[in-house]
Amino acid sequence: MKKNVLKSILFVIFFVVITEILTYVVLPGSNVRKMGMIKVATYEVLGEQKNTIDVAVIGDSLVYSSLSPMVIWNEFGYTTFDCSNPAQLITESYGNLEAVTETQKPKIVILEANELFRDDKHKKLKYKMEVLYRKLIPIATYHNNWKNYFMYGSKDNWINIYKGYKYITKVESGKSNYEMTYSSKKEVIPDKNKEYFDKIYELCKKNNIKLVVVSFPTQISWNYKKHNATETLLEKYSDVEFIDLNTVDLGIDWKKETKDEGGHLNYLGARKVSTYIGEYIKSTELVEDKRGNKKYASWDEAYKKYVFYSNNQ
Amino acid sequence: MSYFDAIFAFLFIPILIVIYNIVPKKFRPYFLLAVSFGFFCVISKFLIAFLLLSILSIYLITNKFTKIDKERDEVLEKTDKDNRKEVKTLFSKKKKRWLVLGILFNVAMLFGFKYVNFFGSNLNYIFDLFKLDVHYNIIKYAAPIGISYYTLQAIAYLVDVYNGKFEAEKNICKVALFLSFFPQIMEGPIVRYNDTADQLFEGKSVSYNSFCFGYQRVLYGFFKKFVIADRLNIAVSMIFDSYTTFSGGILFLGAIFYTILLYMEFSGTMDVVIGIGEMFGVKIPENFKQPFFAKNISEFWTRWHISLGLWFKDMIFYPVSLSKPVKHLTLHARKIFGNKYGPILCGGIALFCVWFLNGLWHGAGWPFLFYGMYHFVMILSGNLLEPLIQWLCTKLHINRQNIVYRVLQSVKMALFVFIGEMFFRAPTVRQGFVMLKRIITNFSFSSFKDGGLAILGIDVYDLAVIIIGVLVIFVIGLLKERNINVREEISKKNIVFRWFIYYLLIFSIIMLGAYGPGYIPVDPIYADF
Questions:
Q1: Per residue in A132-159, pLDDT tens?
Q2: Rounded Cα distance, B379 and A20, in Å
Q3: 20 to 30 A Cα–Cα from B114, which one of A9, A140, A175, A277?
């Protein structure tokens, strides 16, 4: 019995040691030195080259299912990155923004509006586990990096194809001809969230970043009460724009362009949102088209791979 | 939920084992039953009601058999010799009625969930054809998980008790656990009551050895699924989804890839299922026995999805071929076609029933029915041609045990299997034929000129991993064919070698597994049947 316990402990220790070695081998190189392994796994954006991101989009699952940075790159030449996790809290978004500003100088930060209303206690265990799992076992995210050794001779050339976006082709129809029911009431924004919104605002101001609050299309998570509450909150912040895509006609076909009965968009819906957001970024005149710029060649490479992998889904 | 969920295999199972070992021995089967019901509910929620109905029906009916037998014996004691036969027939008929009722009840549930829409949509075609103003409205609904598996187990239990193979179980929980044991519920194997019920109810502790051995098997399944099947899935989806753009050679490659994928996915699942069973001290029967080492398609089916084949043999093939009308027909056929071909042709009736139902069991759709009929034709023609081939070999002095002959036989068998699986994967029978036509009329790999391997969505590294993975599985299969149990051989070696192999297995899954960004895992294919 004792022998077996000892053997088991030894087996686990060796397992952890080998995992750590292999993790070091496959994690995107430059970030390991600078940021530490765990941070890279938690904040994917740290895998990007320094000062290359124009727009950071921060929020929950509505972000990574609504906005495809590669579509924006292809159509407008702007570099966007989805810094989002399932059921992300605004407190976590603040951490995300801090991580972004450590290595990037984005001109615009888009904050997804729905998380203003999410309370800690509502955060589902499953999502917490998912974030924890990525944090604890970064090798699960970066294991495929071994190919880079053969292809490019270095792990430093790791290219993130999706830039935080989750490409989903699944179709589960929602309600057709959906329109939000009007209400003059207001949802309550928890005080803690207001406090963190203020912190995000201050951080953006300090870094000279334009903050935009966007509500991404959903038939389930958003309503007029939230819309009204967001508008009221933003009255204090005159330089923060609010775009409620649930009140804009984007031509979303809810029969075909949602992956979960109207909860989130699939890749078809995301294309429309991405084009709209691309147009918006263009209208701000804060960001330049970087297509053809040698410094951003990896984005062209990523786009090629994106098209390649997307065609396979 | 899938057995390949890391949370299921490496969090849920270990926690379950710890609790299981803490629970007193006599309560362990009940604990396993509660877990199995819970597992079922997580996937199918309130549809568990139908599983419960199945359990209740077979429990009540098999106990009714016992009651009828008891009544019969009591009556027989009081009956004189002349009337005994009549009494026996009377009770036998009564028992049969209950058996038929039990089978119909369970089949009706299966039919209701799986086939109503299929038959309804085909009826709509007929209504449209005759311009009738009738229409069946297709209703979308989910079926209870594993209904195709547990229904067959339930029917087998009814028939086995009816035939006196074993006595009806008095403890309903034991029947329930036999039918709903959580590792088996999704994809089988379709076990018989005497295979697992007693072991499940023994409540053996999970020992260090059974835990280690079980996990080794689970990891082997993970290797097949993540390293091979999921990586192949990219190319397979590409080929079958855009079949019109590829030349025949690549379509044939698609058929080969899909067959390998299906084998790795399904047999990998069985490794996980059997591995978990092993941990709990339950020896779940093997469902695969190196099918690609078979000599012909008939033998292939005794090595692939063994439990389904056995079920069809016992529940359909024998009852049909031993039925009075078929026996009668065989007698006539012997007179007309001779002693060789007569029985083969009549056996064809039972074979047809088996493969028609086998096709239907795999899915409510024409491609599945075609798949069944394809195998029926292949096996029957194989049986009919066998005497001729035997005669030819004798005449031409060909040694059928010769290695070249055997290899050629295996190649022919594999070819038939690849084509069969191609029809199985194609969403319509028409697509299957278009692909087959292109394979025959345009067998080239010219599509590769347009973009090399990339046109299949994989790169040379993916291909290298697939080839190495398949070779590893092939060598292990070859050793098994030679009665060498690799796992046991490894366990005899010193600890350094053993651990090296285990770590190699674990880290090849972690590093070479096709998961994460850019990969879509194969859905549990056999869970849909």
A1: 776 777 787 778 777 767 765 555 556 6
A2: 53
A3: A175
Residues B274, B309 within the same domain = no
Contact A161 B518 (CB under 8 A): yes
Å from A312 to nearest chain B CA?
6
Across A26-39, average pLDDT: 50
What is the tally of structural domains in chain B?
3
User: Does B434 lie in the same domain as B469?
Assistant: no
Query: Do B241 and B296 have their domain in common?
Result: no
The minimal CB distance from A312 to the residues B7, B237, B506 is found for: B237
Taking alpha carbons only, the member of B263, B290, B264, B280 closest to residue B214 is B280
Of the pLDDT bands very low, low, confident and very high (cuts 50, 70, 90), residue B139 is: confident
User: Please, how many CA atoms are within 13 Å of residue A223, restricted to the half-sphere of its CB?
Assistant: 12
Phi, psi of A50 (to 5 degrees): -60, 140
A47 contact residues in B (CB cutoff 8 A)? none
Q: Is the CB of B507 less than 8 angstroms away from the CB of A143?
A: no
- List residues of chain B with CB under 8 Å from any CB of chain A: 7, 208, 234, 237-238, 454, 457, 459, 461, 495, 499, 502-503, 506-507, 510-513, 515-518, 520
Task: Choose the closest CB to A312 out of B208, B238, B510.
Answer: B238
Regarding whether B318 and B262 lie in a shared domain, the answer is no
Last residue of a domain, one of B407, B442, B477: B442
User: If interface means Cβ-Cβ distance under 8 Å, which residues of chain A face chain B?
Assistant: 4, 7-8, 11, 14-15, 18-19, 22, 26, 129, 139-141, 143-144, 146-147, 150-151, 160-162, 305, 308-309, 311-313
Task: Give A128's Cβ-side CA count (13 Å radius).
Answer: 6
Say if residue B428 is in the same domain as residue B492.
no
Q: Please report, for residues B326, B348, B352, the alpha-carbon distance to residue B342 in angstroms, rounded to integers and kept in the order given.
A: 11, 10, 16
Same domain, B388 and B466: no
Residue numbers in A near B495 (CB within 8 A): 7
Count up the domains in chain A and report the number: 1
Q: Is residue B6 part of a domain?
A: no
Based on the fold, state whether residues B339 and B423 are members of the same structural domain: yes
- Residues of chain A with C-beta less than 8 angstroms from the C-beta of B522: none
Sheet containing strand A241-244, edge to edge, reads A80-84, A55-59, A108-112, A210-215, A241-244
ipTM over 0.95: no
* CB-based contact B457 A312, cutoff 8 Å: yes
- A307 pLDDT higher than 60: yes
Domain coverage including residue A242: 2-311
Last residue of a domain, one of B390, B409, B442: B442
Distance from CA of B414 to the nearest CA of A (A): 27
Residues recorded for chain B: 529
Domain of residue B105 covers 24-203
Judge: A308–B457 Cβ closer than 8 Å, yes or no: yes
Given a cut of 70, whether residue A32 has pLDDT beyond it is no
The reported pLDDT for the residue numbered B459 is 79
Q: For chain A, what is the mean pLDDT?
A: 84
Query: Comparing C-alpha atoms, which of A284, A188, A191, A180 is closest to residue A230?
Result: A188
